[in-house]
Each structure stands twice: as C-alpha cells, then as structure tokens.
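Researcher: Next entry: Glycosyltransferase family 9 protein (Moritella marina ATCC 15381).
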Amino acid sequence: MTPPQSICILRFSAIGDVCHAVSVVQAIQRHYPNAKITWVIGKIEAMLVGDLAGVEFIIFDKKTGLKGYSDLRKKLNNRQFDVLLHMQVALRASVASLCIKAKQRWGFDKVRAKEGQWLFTNNKIKPQSQPHVLDGFMAFAEAIGVPVAPPQWDIPLTTQDNLWAHSQLSHTKKNFIICPSASKAERNWSTAGYAEIANYMHENNYQVSICGGPTDSEKQLAKEIIELATVPVNNLVGETSLKQLLAILKHADLVLAPDTGPAHMSTTVGTPVVGLYAHSNPGRTGPYNNLDDVAEVYHQHLPDSEWGVRAKGPDLMDAISIEQVKSCLQKWL
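Model: Predicted structure:
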C-alpha cells in the first residue's frame, strides 16, 4: 500500500489504554518514519505521554462539554489526514471524530464497534478472537500495513524525574510498590489484604511503598493500609506527578495493582506486575507482559461469559485470597 503521509490517532483515555496506544503509535513510527502523526488525547493522559518524540498532540477536554468539540474543530480546521485510526468506541469519541477529516477512517469490526462507532468509519479492522486490548489496538497498525511485532514503549522521562524516584526508593533493598486504588472502589482489594502483603514483602527484604493519586479516597485507602500494616511503609500517595510515578515504577523491582493505570504504566517500563482481577477478564485487560502473574477470581464469578463482559457486584474482589497473591509474588522473590 502507499505509505500514509499523515495519520491521526483518536484515543482520549484512560491511562492504561493510552499506554497500550503508545506501543501502536511507536510501531507506526518505526515502519513509516516519514509519516506525520497527530494524536487527539485527553488532558490528563497527555501529562503522561504528551512529549512522545515526533507526535503532535491535540488535547480534547471532555469536561468542557460542547466547547471541547468546538475547540477541536477549530484546531483541525482546513486539515485532512490520509488516515484516521478511531480507537475508542465511546459515543463522545465518535462525535469528536466528526471534527477530523480523513480519507480512510478505520474503526473496530462491527461486533466490537459498540455505541454505533461503525457509523463513523469507512474501514474496519479485522475481527479477532478474544484479543487483549493492546492486540485489538495493534490491529489498527496492521490494517495500514505495519507488520505485527511484540510491543515496545519509549515514554520519555527527564533526569529530574529519575533522580527524584531514586531519592524515594531504597538503595539497600529491593523495592515493592503497591498501587492499591482502581478508578472504582469496588475494584480495590481489601485493606487487610494489602497490609498483610506489605508485611510479607518487608519480611522478604523489600522496601514497601504505596503510590496513588491525590484524591481523598486514595489518601484514605493508603492511610488505612498503613495503619493495619505492622512494618514501615513509604507513603507516596498524592506526592507524584504522572511522570514521577512512571519513574518510581521504572526503578522498582515489583508492583502489585488491581485493574488500574499504573499496572500498565509498569509494563511500559519493563517492571513486572502482579495484577488483582475480579470484575474484568485479565486475559483482555491484564498487564500485557504478566498475564500469567495475575491473582484473579473473574472466571470464578463468570466461568462461561463472553470475552468482554464485566462481572458486577460490590464485594467480588474479596474472593481473592492472601495466599493466592503470595503465590503469585513468590515467583519474583
């Protein structure tokens, strides 16, 4: 096929999915080094990846309502791309895609093109049987001629970010990071479970740190875990920018997290992750390079479900046992 000269990526959120999308963007850059790439992305997500080399970023702030669409249209006025990769099925993303002129408009195959996404595209990626989200994204690159290859990531970190991370971590022990909070509280594991694992890893000569965002709920969760633990825990919740958090994860030795962005951030920097899953299928949304290192009860709750179905209920994560998590961690001790 004729190499595209201009490519627009449409993927606003969330952090984990944007991490997957980075591997797609950089695969395209390696295969089409002369193509100009523009990425329409969310405001928060741009704080993590908005300095990727060779990519123009255009912020779409969904919190501004109709103004966000108007601003996007103005920013892209009089521009036409050879290719649009419409990688988000939410209706608001499809509405935003109307602000983007492109000759080829690639979307998901009709089975996965939920919320009417198929109405906004003129090309579909090939159907896939039970793909991980990252593999689903990578099919967009394949559709425009990029050879399939293992994912790679290069998200820039400054010297200052790396030095700051070094200052927060142990230089005499290995470093174990707990990122306990998911975007929804029901996807968090128990505070008692996290505290017991903190004790266990301390006994195995790891410094234990807790990381998370600045919200009151995340700070409260960290406080409860630390109060239950009987060992020192380094509390970094609310103390890091997204770049500093990425640096922490990069220089750590092992991460424990539920279905949340830092699990996928860890994957981008090569740090092994033990994931905790009850609501989503870990084969679809788990940490890509550590799908065999997941403590999960999803299949216990939904043994015969369709691939993308979420399990529902406020206490599903409680079925993950401490011994199950320890068993996953032992591989890395």
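Model: Note for the record: The radius of gyration is 20 Å.
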